[in-house]
Amino acid sequence: MGGKKISERSIKKKSGPTHPYSRRATQLARVAHRKDKLNQAKSVRSRSSNAKVDRLSTLILMLPDDIDALPDLAAVHAFVKDNFLTRHHDELEELRADRRPGRPPHKREVELKEVIAKELQEYNEGLEIPDFTNATNVKLLREWQGDPQALPLFRMVRISGNDPDQCKLMHTGTHKLLTLELEQQQKSNAETEMDTTDIAADANASEFQRVGEFAQMG
Predict the structure, then answer these.
(1) Is residue 1 part of a domain?
(2) Cα–Cα distance between 195 and 68 in angstroms, integer?
(3) Is there a domain that residue 99 lies in?
(4) Torsion on CA atoms 178, 183, 186, 188, rounded to nearest 10
(5) Is residue 48 within 8 Å of 145, Cβ to Cβ?
(6) In CATH, what number is assigned to the domain containing residue 201?
(7) Buried residues in 103-116 as b, exposed as e (16+ CB within 10 A)
(8) What is the residue-level pLDDT of the chain in tens, covering all 218 positions?
């Protein structure tokens, strides 16, 4: 998910016709799909004033349709950094390019800069997001219609850009499928753990879960 971000403006700067099966055509299709996802998220936001609803709807709409779940914590960080934190960059680039030399930044440009800076700070200090390593949680989020009353149903974790190897489970999720998964895992852990004293000591030693435990949280 890394690499240089491609925008519609940067692609269209290239001269010559676009072959339907060329790399450029693929890039344009990817950019168009991303814009469609962002427009869907805006539509959800227009129907709700709940900041958490806005964030969750944006994140789940940005997750590629062919992915059931992200494999590990490193993939979660890559997804957040390459998609969520950069979602305003194309608009900001266009506003800067359209501004005449010597003119002060447009109000929208200032607002976007502030949003980007605020979200980056929150990500570095600790960002609460859905557990995208849990396939059941991802499925439930994709079926969700944006109802704020349903927020407690989902499994939530807290990640930190300043501590990318660890995360914290914030909410296990009250949906019956997530509850059943948790019960089954707890039963399995109880059958295989030989020394619960050492495990409890490790859990209390840090506020965050170890990276190796992240993929097992669901």
Answers:
(1) no
(2) 34
(3) yes
(4) -100
(5) no
(6) 1.20.1440.170
(7) eeeeeebeebeeeb
(8) 444 455 555 555 555 555 565 666 666 666 666 666 666 655 555 544 588 999 999 999 999 999 999 999 999 999 999 999 999 999 999 999 998 888 999 899 999 999 999 999 999 999 999 999 999 999 999 999 999 999 999 999 999 999 999 999 999 999 999 999 999 989 888 887 766 555 555 555 555 555 555 555 54
> Where do we find the tokens 């949906």?
175
Does 122 reside within a domain? Answer: yes
Instruction: Report the chain's C-alpha Rg in angstroms.
Output: 20
156 contacts: CB under 8 Å, gap ≥ 6:
128, 129, 130, 131, 169, 170, 171, 173
User: 188 lies in which domain range?
Assistant: 8-214
Q: Is residue 131 part of a domain?
A: yes
Q: Which residue type, as a one-letter code, is found at position 209?
A: Q
CA dist 6 and 12 (Å) reads 11
Q: What's this model's pTM, rounded to 2 decimal places?
A: 0.70
Sheet with 156-159, strands from edge to edge, namely: 127-130, 156-159, 166-171, 209-210
**Domain count along the chain:** 1
Spatial separation of the C-alpha atoms in residues 148 and 24, rounded to whole Å: 40
Helix (H, G, I), strand (E, B) or coil at 166: strand
